[in-house]
Amino acid sequence: MGLGALFLGFFFLSCVVCVKSVEPKPSPTCTFPAIYNFGDSNSDTGGISASFVPIPAPYGEGFFHKPSGRDCDGRLIIDFIAEKLNLPYLSAYLNSLGTNYRHGANFATGGSTIRKQNETIFQYGISPFSLDIQIVQFNQFKARTKQLYEEAKTPLERSKLPVPEEFSKALYTFDIGQNDLSVGFRKMNFDQIRESMSDIVNQLANAVKNIYEQGGRSFWIHNTSPFGCMPVQLFYKHNIAAGYLDQYGCVKDQNEMATEFNKQLKDRIIKLRTELPQVAITYVDVYAAKYALISNTKTEGFVDPMKICCGYHVNDTHIWCGNLGSANGKDVFGAACENPSQYISWDSVHYAEAANHWVANRILNGSFTDPPTPIIQACYTQRKLYHKLQN
Fold first, then answer.
1. Which member of 20, 75, 150, 336 lies 3.0 to 4.6 Å from 310 by CB, making a disulfide possible if both were Cys?
2. Buried (b) or exposed (e) across 45-59, using 16+ Cβ within 10 A?
């Protein structure tokens, strides 16, 4: 080999070594020992069923093969979060039977609101467990389990209890606010709803502060869904005026209110980051993820987003999923469709498992979050993550 060829070979080898030496380090991951969730029916894994009337079949049968306390045929987004973090599905705090709280607890209940409502669940389905009550329950849970853990005499006694030191390392998730809008649309005009939003988002911020003061540092907060895209919003609607719906069949002004709520929520979260040192708060744009699915149903293999899988909904006769009713003088059961995996809407309000899975895949990888980091890095502030990557 000539000197020229030898030199070129050495130069090429040196460049390969240089390229290898500057390869980016793998992104650091968080080790969350537990999840503590606060929310409504979008993330309730059994709380409202344990407290009132159990959610019946065919709810839960698609994945769990039996009713599971979830308003879905299978898993919710919170279940996919648990799977992503290699943690078991969350037991509902209010479920006293067969519960295991070693890796977290779920304080969400169907119908919950951020602000207390002066209604009973039997009137409009509003849960008595508003966010402030869920935080009180968490405070009691944290204190009581610490006491039980310290008093336990055997490893078996401790095996279903959270380790007290791990509360500060846990992930705290919030998925609530949709029912505050629902109450607003029922009781207020749009100006009044807008006026109420600052108080609603401030109450959520206070809940975050409460947990922060007890040592919580990692928060994953969902905004509210495209409210006007729920098929239930079109029940009993006739002769719909031009411009009332968008091109995908969603109620435009309701989605505008949801968008305004989400803007105020995001602004409040940005402010929270400055108020709470060391906090890592991820704002999750569930609205954008769900609307992306709704606007691309055919491409993604789903049917029309306004079609409902479970229940009987013909003209103005509505028999809810899992219920028995009467239509045209005959008994009719609100059964499930043959292919739930093709539907976005499970029961006209809640998403089917396949749609939840689609949305979960998009938010858990950071595609629809601020900062744009996946959930496995949600324990880091942007500054800490940058420092970790550089070192």
1. 336
2. bbbbbbbbeebeebb
- Reference 148, options 162, 137, 134, 136; nearest CA is 162
DSSP class of 38: E
Residue 304 falls in the annotated catalytic set? no
| Ramachandran quadrant class, 84 (left: phi over 0; alpha: psi -120 to 50; beta: rest) | alpha
Q: What is the pTM for the complete model shown?
A: 0.92
Active-site residue identified among 103, 222, 318, 350: 350
Among 68, 112, 347, 357, the active-site one is 347
pLDDT value of position 381: 86
Q: Is 285 known to be catalytic?
A: no
Q: Is 347 a catalytic residue?
A: yes
Beta bridge pairs of residue 264: none
**How many Cβ atoms from other residues are within 10 Å of residue 248's Cβ?**
17
- By three-state DSSP, how is residue 35 classified? strand
| Contact indicator for 48, 109 with CB cutoff of 8 Å | yes
Task: Give the tens place of pLDDT for each residue, 96-152.
Answer: 998 999 999 999 999 999 999 999 899 999 999 999 999 999 999 999 999 999 999
Give pLDDT, residue 198: 98
* 127, 110 contact by CB (below 8 A): yes
Domain boundaries, the chain: 33-297+350-387
Does the structural domain 33-297+350-387 have CATH classification 1.10.150.120?
no
